[in-house]
Design goal:
Layout lengths: L13 E7 L8 E7 L17 H14 L1 E7 L1 H7 L1 H15 L6 E5 L11 E4 L7 H24 L5 H4 L5 H10 L20
Parallel strand pairs: 1-4, 4-5
Antiparallel strand pairs: 1-2, 2-3
Length: about 200
């Protein structure tokens, strides 16, 4: 059994939401929404950051087999247009709208959210380590985003996204300094420290 709580409101159909990639310099922000049906058990659920890559993949397969779920991406252009917080919430709204199962309550990881279709919601700081549905959403958001960054890495190998997934590692920043930014970089982010120039 998972050590996490199955739900906050047991009498309602509850959906968990989380995102991945907010702190990245490149690629989309990715959100997932997951409803774990009553009576379904998924062992080992946890915050995706606390799991190994192989555990995440195994859990991803089980979540996708047993649950109602959706994963949606909001790309760099939209992030630059509306800012990363709004883009994260938009990705969550898109994933909620895409679910093929009705729900009555939304559990959201973090402390910021905008109402979705007048459905009650609760924000939970570090909720991916507390509630099963948010943990499941965190796993899907991360694994789907990692897969996408690995695909983009094939076209832009100089940035090593297969390894850094677009996060601001030293190697990633050095590559931006050497090669400049590309279409997948978030221009509204500080891509390089102020002492370096973008070419």
């Amino acid at each position: 059994m998972s050590a996490l709580k199955p739900f906050l409101q047991a009498k309602r159909i509850e959906v968990g939401c989380d995102e991945a990639g907010r702190g990245c310099l490149a690629g989309p922000v990715t959100a997932a929404a997951v409803i774990i049906p009553k009576g379904v058990t998924i062992k080992g659920l946890n915050d995706s950051k606390q799991l190994t890559a192989s555990n995440r993949e195994a859990l991803r397969f089980e979540i996708e087999e047993k649950c109602y779920w959706s994963v949606q991406f909001v790309g760099p252009e939209k992030i630059d247009e509306i800012n990363i917080l709004n883009a994260s919430i938009l990705a969550m709204h898109l994933s909620l709208a895409d679910l093929n199962q009705a729900f009555e309550h939304i559990l959201v990881d973090g402390n910021r959210f905008k109402a979705f279709q007048q459905i009650p919601h609760t924000t939970v700081i570090k909720g991916d380590g507390i509630y099963q549905s948010i943990a499941a959403a965190s796993i899907l958001a991360k694994t789907h985003r990692d897969d996408l960054m690995a695909q983009l890495d094939q076209d832009f190998p100089q940035y090593a996204w297969g390894k850094n997934k677009g996060y601001p590692t030293q190697a990633h920043r050095q590559a931006i300094a050497q090669y400049g930014a590309c279409i997948h970089h978030r221009k509204s982010f500080t891509l390089l420290p102020s002492q370096l120039q973008l070419f």
